[in-house]
Amino acid sequence: MSQTPESKEEKPAPAPTRDLSKVPVGQEQNEAEAGIRAKAIEAQLKKALNVPADDETEPSPTKTHAFWGTQPVPAKPSEQVKSFEEAHPLEDVEEKMKHIRKTPLPLPQEFEWFNLDETNDEQLTELYTLLRENYVSDSDAWFRFAYSKPMLKWAINAPGTVKEYKCGVRVAGTSTMVAFISAVPTVVAVGGGEIKAVIIDFLCVHKSLREKRLAPVLIKEITRRVNLRGTFQAVYTAGTVIPTPYTAAHYYHRSISVEKLLDVHFTGIPKMMNVPRLKKLYRVEDAVETPGWRKFRGGDAPVVREKLNEYLRSNFKVAQLFKTDEDVIHSFKPRPNIVYSFVAESPTKDIDAFGSFYCVTNECPKSDKHPSIEIGYIYYYFTNGRVPLVELIGNLIVEAKKVGMDVVNALDVMKNKEMFTELKFGKGDGTLNYYLFNFNIPALQPEENGIVLI
Ligand SMILES: CC(C)(COP(=O)(O)OP(=O)(O)OC[C@H]1O[C@@H](n2cnc3c(N)ncnc32)[C@H](O)[C@@H]1OP(=O)(O)O)[C@@H](O)C(=O)NCCC(=O)NCCS
Question: Could you tell me the residue ranges of all domains in the chain?
């Protein structure tokens, strides 16, 4: 997953503790029984993972990261290479190939692996529910991500992905899903070169099964599946710091629906401000004025692919690339409430600029006024200069308002910092750490990073 809880300026009251016993996981009868079962599951998971039980572990340099300490990632910042000339995989592929396990990692007997079929509505609903109830929320529980079913279907089904990359865990013999992780193939430009990789997303473990080492089992299992298909690198993001981020990006927010965002405590009223002044400050035009501005169409894919890749390659040290027209169409063809993309055509019909944003609903469980807010995330873009970046992103804000977004979020990756002040983005308190699996690169500034994950 690519997200981090939303920021807000005022701290609301702490959230009431959620009653997990109401969550239908397995057949727990009472707390004592559930406790014993949880211990047994944890021991079995550790066995599956080859992690010693806590009381057997000697103090060691990997003590603080029992799992990540065994993985091909730099253990700490001092182990990151200093230049792209030195960038390298941390594990030898040929050696690795000899030892790839052919069968899935064992799970405790209560659980089983399954490949999520997103065309099956019942299974898609299971995923939606798992994420809605257990995925990322802010620490005060004012907001929680609620990726819609069509959004999830789109995100986990990028071209080239296979059913084994939609990796679920459910209670054996039932449809109750308790964990998930997904991978989609991509190509990443690194320094001057390219690596074949997957994007790992939507890692989620049910709240009642947390801290039982199930996440490492999921990560090892998806790694095995991806390795079996000949890919040995991955890109992923997390709000938490694990070994070792190559960059840390920060979220910025551009208010659109001022009163609604105040109502749900997404933003507060700064000193010397009041609601009418804030509304005036964040007023958004009704229409885009850039000549030649129009929605992206499938027929634009070849030109957009070429220009976008060129922009990403030449401006950023690490970037996602879009290798086929199918990738571009999948990622950017406008889909209501999922993704919106636009181009600016010159009078000679050249595409001078391209911009996109994707949409995520954030539920507001504590608000009695609004059930949710809609957030547009600045996604990929390029411009050749005829349309300045401020104008391009400004246009995306107008388009976001037109389709009902309440706020536009952007990370300080790519060239976004150049437009934050003029377009009135404010810094939030969310940080998103970026990681590469099995590839050691130097630490980067976020503006050197050209990757935006869903
Ligand atoms: C992230 C999540 C799956 C971790 O599960 P958990 O039950 O807390 O942790 P487990 O006991 O299973 O495993 C702990 C190991 O996973 C690692 N881990 C925790 N979060 C991780 C993440 N987002 N990505 C990769 N590894 C992670 C821990 O560092 C630890 O390994 P270590 O001992 O080497 O440090 C779980 O907290 C969750 O579902 N959170 C909500 C969704 C979410 O934040 N997903 C990640 C998207 S950014």
Answer: 33-52+67-243, 248-450
Res. 235: pLDDT tops 80: yes
- Distance from CA of residue 216 to its chain's centroid? 18
Mapped onto helix, strand or coil, the DSSP state of residue 405 is: coil
Cα–Cα distance measured from residue 407 to residue 261, given in angstroms and rounded to the nearest whole number? 8
38 ligand 1 Cβ < 6 A: no
Mean pLDDT of 209-216: 97
147 lines ligand 1 (CB under 6 A): no
pTM over 0.85: yes
pLDDT at 1 over 70: no
Task: Give me 99's structure tokens.
Answer: 């030892």
The answer to whether 33-52+67-243 and 248-450 have equal CATH topology is yes
Q: Which residues lie below 8 Å from residue 351, measured CB to CB, with a gap of 6+?
A: 300, 303, 304, 307, 343, 344, 345
Helix (H, G, I), strand (E, B) or coil at 38: helix
Amino acid present at 69: G
For residue 215, how far is its CA from the centre of ligand 1 (angstroms)?
Answer: 5
**214 Cβ closer than 6 Å to some ligand 1 atom:** yes
Which ligand 1 atom minimizes the distance to the CA of 67?
34
Domain covering 248-450, topology:
Aminopeptidase (3.40.630)
68 lines ligand 1 (CB under 6 A): yes
What share of the chain has pLDDT > 70, as a percent?
86
- Ligand 1 in contact with 132 (CB < 6 A)? no
